[in-house]
Amino acid sequence: MDGNLLGPDPTMLPAREEPQGALDTGADPADVAARWPDFSAAWAALAEAALNKGENVAAYAYARTGYHRGLDQLRRSGWKGFGPIPWSHAPNQGFLRSLAALARAAKAINDTEEYERCSTFLADSDPAAPAALGL
Fold this sequence. Notes:
By secondary structure, the chain is an all-alpha fold. It contains seven helices and no strands. Helix 3 packs parallel to helix 5 (93-108).
């Protein structure tokens, strides 16, 4: 253990200034995802936009991509499959947004088991995340 008697230390993904800057200045999330396919925030933005249009299957696919790309990055950052992933750390937000969008899309297509799994994972990652993301 890393000296934390309560469990693993929080996982903090590294900042991705170039793709985040592109999103922040209004670049199309599809262009950002095409240029940086491992950038979860771009996939989260695509999923959220699809959900807002009622395109639930597309939202599910975008969110699942962002979720899986985020899992890869979390593991490279030392995450062992459990432990805190703080919402307050901005670089973690793309993954957590993808996870929340996946939950919402799963609910929209009546995949109750996936909705519950994703909702639980989000709350386990950071108890503040569900409220911050409207779940």
